Amino acid sequence: MRTDFAFVGVMMVTAALLMGVTLIAAALLRPKKPNPAKLETYECGMSTVGDTWVQFRVQYYILALVFVLFDIEALLLFPIAFAFNSLTLFAVANVVLFVLVLLLALIYAWRKGALDWE
Description:
Blueprint: H1 2-29, H2 36-39, H3 58-82, H4 89-112
């Protein structure tokens, strides 16, 4: 048991060191030639017109959050699909309950208008 935690610790330290060495090497080796064009804000390759602080409707953010939530919940169903033949009846009941909760959440979001794009 203790060796498992030691292995995870060694892997975390190795990953942190590798990331740090890579970032330091990139900072030392990159070309440093700033000019006004490189220091401008990049907006889809075009110069911005007017005020860049445009207020968006909150509904866009709600739709994005609903998408992320359902995307993550769908991702949680993949391991269940792979191990479906070896699941017990209790596990299958939990999966059905999980999918029903997802369906109720989708119906709730739909009725609240969170999925409308107008």
